[in-house]
Amino acid sequence: MSAAGQGPAAARSAGWTLDELAARLLERQPRALGRAISLLENGSRGLAAAADGAAAPGARELIGRIFPRTGRARVVGVTGPPGAGKSTLVDRLARRCRQRGDTVAILAVDPTSPFTGGALLGDRIRMQSLYTDPGVFIRSMATRGAMGGLARASRDAVDLLDAAGFDWVLVETVGVGQDEVDVVRSVDSVVMVTVPGLGDDIQAIKAGILEIADVFVINKADREGVERTFKDLQMMLSIGDHGAWLPPVLKAVATRDEGIDRLLVEVERHREHLVASGELAARRRSHLRLRVETLLKERVVAAADQVLGLDREIERGFASRLDPYQVADRLFSGVVDASREELVP
Ligand SMILES: Nc1nc2c(ncn2[C@@H]2O[C@H](COP(=O)(O)OP(=O)(O)O)[C@@H](O)[C@H]2O)c(=O)[nH]1
Ligand SMILES: [Mg+2]
């Protein structure tokens, strides 16, 4: 990774202006894609460091530039517990898409791994033949900077890959933790991967993923207990309220390339359902809302810190035994007053 600086300077470090970077992105040049995603990641970190609540100029300008071109890609999230076979499934799915002549971007979002972590390295080796295919772009993203930074950077990265013209953007996440759930909440279709055995299913319910899954895959169907898990899942689904779409439960053996065709069929069927029912627009509207709310919260907190000092006010509240509402009121009033005087950008 290049030690990118702030904003446009980071883009220029490759000898490219923001305009040049944007132009190369639209040609899906891998180096430009890689650099742009680094810019988005550093944008998040810059934001935390600067605490001014606004995205670092480079990331923000880049998103501003490419955003009008977004909305065409099929954005599919593949989530589930570690070791369920998500990477293997994504790899197989990507190959299917390529066979049809579609281009594919794969984003592996893993908050637990350092950037060149062992698991991701393993994924890379497994996906090697995809790596040499110019119709495929693979990138992993891990924790950087503040809480929530990964979710923002990954959503921005999805926009970028969408704008770059990839037909598919496949996002792999472990699906635990707020960052990851937020990532999963901002894709069009959610594929939940589980394996035979009840433990993982309960884990999924706990993580709140069950309610937002559109397609279930019981991977490792070569293992014992697949029928039991199949019935358990269908039972759980039968008691939920799913509106017009009842999430199908599929079986797959990713390592043997079994069940992948069916998975693609169901993902496409879900897409058709989204379009036909108007749900796609509704989802995208709610994705926008989620992102806007996140940015707003961050800005208010950052502004409160800038105007009054968060630590100072908390300390003051603690010492005077103020209740949390009183502390928040004081901080919020400080922000409102300051914005009237235009002290807050
Ligand atoms: N037996 C069996 N093993 C599988 C299957 N799919 C993946 N695996 C293996 O499970 C392990 C974890 O797979 P991986 O794709 O890295 O899981 P991830 O952590 O969810 O991304 C690897 O050793 C895979 O080869 C399957 O369908 N059956
Ligand atoms: Mg994986």
Word description of this protein:
The chain is an alpha/beta fold. Helices cover about 55% and strands about 10% of the residues. The protein contains 15 helices and seven strands. It has helices at about 5-10, 20-25, 30-50, 55-65, 85-100, 120-125, 130, 150-165, 180-185, 200-205, 225-240, 260-275, 280-305, 310-320, 325-340; strands at about 75-80, 105-110, 135-140, 170-175, 190-195, 215-220, 250. The protein has a seven-stranded parallel sheet with strand order 3-2-4-1-5-6-7, sandwiched between helices. Strand 5 (about 190-195), helix 10 (about 200-205) and strand 6 form a beta-alpha-beta unit. Helix 8 packs parallel to helix 9 and helix 13 (about 280-305) crosses helix 15. The radius of gyration is 22 Å and the shape is globular. Bound molecules: guanosine-5'-diphosphate (GDP) and magnesium ion.
> What's the number of helices?
15
- What is the helical fraction, as a range of percent? 55-70%
For the terminal residues, how far apart are their CA atoms? 31 Å
**Bound ligand species:** guanosine-5'-diphosphate, magnesium ion
Stretches with pLDDT under 50, minimum 5 residues: 1-7, 44-56, 114-119
Taking the sheet with the most strands, its summary is: 7 strands, parallel
Question: What does the secondary structure layout of this molecule look like, with pairings?
Answer:
Elements: H1 7-12, H2 18-26, H3 30-50, H4 57-66, E1 74-79, H5 86-99, E2 104-110, H6 118-126, H7 128-131, E3 136-142, H8 149-163, E4 168-173, H9 178-184, E5 189-194, H10 198-206, E6 215-218, H11 226-239, E7 249-251, H12 260-277, H13 279-307, H14 310-319, H15 324-340
Parallel strand pairs: 1-4, 1-5, 2-3, 2-4, 5-6, 6-7
Helix pairs in contact: 2-3, 3-4, 3-8, 5-12, 8-9, 13-15, 14-15
Guanosine-5'-diphosphate (GDP) binds next to α5.
